[in-house]
Each structure stands twice: as structure tokens, then as C-alpha cells.
């Protein structure tokens, strides 16, 4: 590996009789301008492996940075989905409040007509109050989620309030992309790529430590113009040089070099074991994420079917109640079941999207299928 350095200097020297001066002490100055060059012959690959270790460490740091970006992106997606889910649940709760207010008015009318007891009116009021009590809790959760989202995207509290205040659909990414995943997609995870680079860096450092036990051969040279008078600096007589090979042979280091080699080998083994462990954990994370997404998706589909059945039941029971064919208890049960299953379905829809985001994150994120 060649290296080249420039040097320049201005020196003042005082010589006395004992040092070779003439007629007592004498002062004189001289200037020097030159170049120093050296080239170490990389016989054992020490320098090459040093460069490899540095490159691998730099790449590992880059992968760590990508991992942080992917993690933040996943958190942003999760918070955004949660916000839209809470807004949907609030909308459904308000719809149920409107429906239950209509039921209360219907019950009051039937009570005034002497068709039902006061108990039916009180139960209708209780059912309505329970549903109304849900709104403050949902609104508080929305505010907290929005603050967290603003912090994640680097905005001050309130910066996104106007943009995200209106209810929007819960994002439902297309899961068809999962079918196009290549078999080695898990190797795209930044944490695994970082661990892999750390293994390579540790292995290269073993080679460096082993090469430190062996001799080094280098070729060095020095060229300089030296003169007492600045006007003679670059004349032919002021040029001097030296050139020649050198050998460095480590004879005794008190066991330091051998200990460094042992430590490097131990770190290499440790890095490989950590990499293997991370691969196993990544595989487990992928399997868990896929299972969670598939099961929650199936649950969401069942709840959606339940919502349709509950809505139909409410309409039928209210009609029967108006005609005096069923008791008010049937109406209460139908409305409670509808409110509960709607809230569960909205929460499951949000959880399905979050689970799908977890799948993408488990596969490393930051990639697209070839079909897109």
C-alpha cells in the first residue's frame, strides 16, 4: 500500500566548539522542503483484510441505519391505522347513539299511550347512556394516538390535527404482494444484513491479527531540498534523497500479539453465533407475523358477517316491538349486540392492517415485488 507525504521546515541551529563550531558558538539557519514515500508490501494480506474489515463495519452501520428507518416507518403506519380505526369506531358509536335515541323516543311514545311500563323507558335511557359513555374514551385515545404520530414524523403537537381530523378509511393493503415474496427475502432484513457484515468484519480482523505475527517488508524513500540560503533551495546541489527496503520482524511482544489473535478469533465465533441466533429469531418472527395476520383476517371476515346479521336483527325486532309482538328486552339485546359487534369488527379491521404491516416489517420492509 503506497503512501506519500510532503514536509517542509525552517530550522535554527547553534553550534559551540564542543559540537564542531568554529570561533566559538555560531548560529545558522537552514530550510528543508521534500517528500516522504513508503510502500508496504502486503505479503500476508494484512492491509487488504484491514480494508475489508473497515468496509464491512461501514456496511453494517448503514444496515443499522436502514433498520432504524424501517422501524420508524412501521411505527408511523401502525399509529396511522390505529387513528383511523378509532375514528371509525367513533363514527359507529355515534350511529348507534342516533339509533338508540330513536328507540328511546319510540318507547316514550308507547309509554305515554299506556302500552309499555316505565321500566322500558328506563332501560332505553340506560342503554343510550352506556353507548354515549364510550365517546369520551375513544376521543381521548384518538388525541393520544395523533400526538404520538406527530412526534414520529417530527411535527409539533397539533400540526396534523386539521389534516387528520376528518375520519378516513382504515387502510387495507393488498395482501396479494405476499404471494410474490422470493425465498430469500428474509435476507433483506437490515438486522440480518448488519449481522452478516459483522461476521465478515470479525473474520477479516482475525486475518489482520494473524498477519501481525509475521514479518513486514516495506520500501521507503525520502527526497528533500535543503539549503542555508533560501535562494539556493531548489538548486541541484541542495537535493538529497534516501531510498531502500526495510524489514520489521516481531520478535518479542510479551504475548500481546498472540492474545490479540485469540481475542479476534473469539469475537469471530461470537459474531457467527449471534448471526445464527438472529436468523432463527427472524424466521420465528416471520411465522408469528404471518399467523397473526391470517387469523385476524379470518376473524375480521366473521365479524363483518356478524354485523350484517345484527343490523338485520335490529330492524326486525324494532318492527315486532312496535306491533307488540316482542318485549323491549329483545330490542335492548339486539341493539347491544349490534353496537358490540360493530365495535369489534372495526377494531379487528384495524388489527388486520397492523398485522399485515408487521408481516412487511418482519420481512425487512423497504422492498417491492417484481410485479409492482
Describe this structure in words.
By secondary structure, this protein is α+β, with helices and mostly antiparallel strands. Helix content is 62%, strand content 14%. It has seven helices and four strands, in the order E-E-H-H-H-H-H-E-E-H-H. The protein has helices spanning 46-112, 118-132, 134-152, 161-164, 190-211, 256-322, 328-362; strands at residues 2-15, 26-41, 216-227, 239-248. The longest helix is centred in the N-terminal third of the chain and has 67 residues, at 46-112. Mean pLDDT is 85; it is low at 368-372.
What's a concise summary of this model?
The chain has 372 residues and is an alpha+beta fold. Helices cover 62% and strands 14% of the residues. It contains seven helices and four strands; from the N terminus they run ββαααααββαα.
List the helices and strands and how they pair.
Layout: E1 2-15, E2 26-41, H1 46-112, H2 118-132, H3 134-152, H4 161-164, H5 190-211, E3 216-227, E4 239-248, H6 256-322, H7 328-362
Antiparallel strand pairs: 1-2, 2-3, 3-4
Please state roughly what percent of the residues sit in beta strands, choosing from under 5%, 5-15%, 15-25%, 25-35%, 35-45% or over 45%: 5-15%
Q: Using the alpha-carbon principal axes, give the shape.
A: elongated
Which class do the helix and strand fractions yield? alpha+beta
Main sheet attributes: strand count, strand direction, barrel closure: 4 strands, antiparallel
Number of helices: 7
